[in-house]
Amino acid sequence: MTRSVKQDKNKKPQPSKPENPWIELAQTVVTAVVLALGIRTFVAEARYIPSSSMEPTLQINDRLIIEKLSYHFREPIRGDVVVFNPTEALKAQDFHDAFIKRIIGLPGETVEVKIGKVLVNGEEITETYIAEDPNYDYGPVKVPEGQYLVLGDNRNNSYDSHYWGFVPQDKIIGKAFVRFWPFNRLGSLDQQPLYPGEVDNVDRSQQSLLIGY
Predict the structure, then answer these.
(1) What's the CATH fold of domain 46-195?
(2) Which of 12, 58, 146, 187 is most buried when burial is the number of CB atoms within 10 A of its CB?
(3) Any idea which residues carry the catalytic annotation?
(4) Dist CA 204 CA 213 (whole Å)
């Protein structure tokens, strides 16, 4: 049997006490901080470019958005510009800050640099994004499973895989998605897919996750 609630009709309702504005402000700030931390940890974050190693694609002091979602659903592909934490080899050299480079070699591939060209599995790849042809020879080396070979677009002024080795996938923070500063160069980093045949090989159900392509 449901009990009824008897109200005293003669009793006036008590006005609710106004909340302390400082408490409201604190709640708002805490909520905003939690949301910001969640977004930065799991979704995206802003980064700036401190060096010339990715010129001409990225200039010193460019500001970028790094998205972190797509690699939970697909593997990195050749041409992706990625931000990654220092590898063990870099930590041993006392590097602590994140790096940004372009993925060139995928797991299991053999990469070689000679006569100013980059060869993957013995075939030259087209590179429309580099500052100049590399003036060094490297390899051939086979990229280990679960790791990537990365190079800077400023090929002759970049401290990258041809010096210190490969990047394990679990070191990758995310993919450089869009430049938001300066305004006169606002937009995605690569206007067209660099290697469209490889993009086509990605499962069609994942195409919407190829952010920036």
Answers:
(1) Umud Fragment, subunit A (2.10.109)
(2) 58
(3) 53, 101
(4) 14
Mean pLDDT in each 10-residue stretch from start to end of the chain (213 residues)? 46 56 53 43 76 95 92 93 97 96 97 96 93 96 98 97 97 92 86 60 40 35
pTM recorded for the entire structure: 0.74
Q: Would you say the C-alpha torsion 199, 202, 204, 209 has a positive or negative sign?
A: negative
Residue type, 154: N
CA distance 153 to 129: 6
Helix, strand, coil content of the chain in percent (nearest 5): 25, 25, 50
